[in-house]
Amino acid sequence: MDIKQIFKNNRNWIAKQLQTDENYFDKLSAGQSPEFLYVGCSDSRVSAEELMGLQPGEVFVHRNIANMVPNTDLNSMSVINYAVMHLKVNHIVVCGHYGCGGVLSAMQQSDLGILNPWLRNIRDVYRLHRKKLDAITDQEEKYKRLVELNVQEQCINIIKTAEVQKANIERNLKVYGWIFDIHTGKLIDLKIDFDEILKDITEIYKIS
Ligand SMILES: [Zn+2]
Q1: What is the pLDDT of residues 15-54, one digit of tens each?
Q2: Can you give the pTM of this predicted structure?
Q3: Which among 2, 11, 26, 41 is annotated as catalytic?
Q4: What is the 3-state composition of the chain as percent helix, strand, coil, each rounded to the nearest 5?
């Protein structure tokens, strides 16, 4: 695969889209009103639209290493703000994936330079759930569980924000934690019981 091939692919894609709908690009350029915000990993094997079967215009996407939503990260906080306040999405998904290199790196003791503070957020997830994770003897199972708990904690970080709390009250905006199982291609809904999890901490994070 070279750069020339990519432009060739693009021309083929344009032709294909116009064959199905000659007004495709007029509609696409008219604006976006996606129902979903997807927060996922930058991993090249986990592409948002493809695994959900969605088309351009149907999902607002934010991807970074290990699908993180750190409280003070201006990038992910801006994405959430824009998606909730301006695009008025009604569903926010945090999608992690088994085999996540970011999560694996956070489980190992190595100095990764500029990546250290980013991965420290995952180490914090480990610390919060240390008892449960240390009790898992199988390393692969422990790794998978940390991927899941990381998704859960990033969802909680989203729920902590004022705009999401407000949208939840005003239009029942929901937050979901999913896993993409890279071994089978399946999307797994972690069915995180946020009401239960937030019961004890709502008072701390309640803004509106
Ligand atoms: Zn990953």
Answers
A1: 999 999 999 999 999 999 999 999 999 999 999 999 999 9
A2: 0.93
A3: 41
A4: 50, 15, 35
